[in-house]
Amino acid sequence: MMKKTYITMLTVLCLLPGMRALQAASPALKVLSAVPKGQQTSMGRQAVNIHFNQPVVALGEDTSFSSDKCPFTITPQVKGTCRYSGTQTLVFEPTENWPDATEFTVTLPKGFKSTVSGQKLGNAYRFSFRTQVPQITYVIPYNNEHWISLNPTLYVTATQPVALSRASSFITLAAQEGQNIPVAARALTEVELDKHFSYLSSQEKQNVFAVSPTQTLQMGQKYTLTLQEGLPAKNGNLGMAHPYRTSFFTYPSLKIEKVLSSGCLPFTPAVYLSTPVRK
């Protein structure tokens, strides 16, 4: 028994210089790549991956652990599971879809250690990404549409719900001369949803809101609706990344533009008006 113990200790002592030499020969531990980064358009349950320049865990080791024991942190905190994929990639997978319109910061602390080479991360590694923010898909009336009422309701469809309590300060309606018309944003009534948006799913209907000028518009004018950068999402702390603009024309004063009273047979007299009229 003593002989076996002696041989084991001798073997370890012989291997130690080689192990130290291996550690000394290993390159400094670095992060080669990390995803996702920057503004994202669709996330779902996309994983966070950090890939290193060398193995950080040996094959066969237990490589799965809960999010609270993950080597890196995510702020704001998200529930999920953490694991190694192979020996050089650290992966975090959320248990639910990433929340919309939120900026997340991932931090791998200084001193993170490879259990294979013993090398440590010299500096903290930090990166961030932003989940999908609101985007405008279309507005009714459509761009450059004519003969719009002087007291119109504009219907705006987005990719996700917006914070209506704060939306009005991010919306402008400008007349052709540059005058800004005050507006109010609100949710649609059930009658409006059934009348204009019955083809949308219940989830999609939550992405539609109404914008109305608080004063009567002028006849025969071009108006431009601008939904500004930063229009806030209902959920999350981010808003629209880019402004959205669309224009429309109010109906002009009623007047006769042209009259056809004579012509070659067969002939039908005609009167052309400046704006449509009801029959």
Offer a concise description of the structure.
This protein is of the alpha+beta class. The chain has helices spanning 2-25, 164-167, 190-196, 202-205, and strands at residues 31-35, 38-39, 48-52, 64-66, 73-75, 80-85, 89-94, 103-108, 125-130, 136-140, 145-148, 154-158, 171-175, 180-181, 183-187, 208-213, 222-227, 244-250, 256-260, 270-273.
How many E-type strands? 20
> DSSP helix count?
4
Question: Which strand order spans the largest sheet, edge to edge or round the barrel?
Answer: 1-3-7-6-4
Q: Which percent range fits the helix content?
A: 10-25%
Query: What's the gyration radius in Å?
Result: 32 Å
Cα end-to-end separation? 111 Å
List unreliable stretches of 5+ residues.
1-16, 18-23
Largest sheet: 5 strands, antiparallel
Q: What fraction of residues sit in β-strands?
A: 25-35%
Overall geometric form:
elongated
User: Which structural class best describes the helix and strand composition?
Assistant: alpha+beta
Helix and strand sequence: HEEEEEEEEEEEEHEEEHHEEEEE
**Rounded average pLDDT:** 89
General description of the model:
With 279 residues, this protein is of the alpha+beta class. Helix content is 14%, strand content 34%. It contains 4 helices and 20 strands. The protein has helices at 2-25, 164-167, 190-196, 202-205, and strands at residues 31-35, 38-39, 48-52, 64-66, 73-75, 80-85, 89-94, 103-108, 125-130, 136-140, 145-148, 154-158, 171-175, 180-181, 183-187, 208-213, 222-227, 244-250, 256-260, 270-273. It has a 5-stranded antiparallel beta sheet with strand order 1-3-7-6-4, with no helix packed on it. A hairpin with a 3-residue loop joins strand 6 and strand 7 (89-94). The N and C termini lie far apart (111 Å).
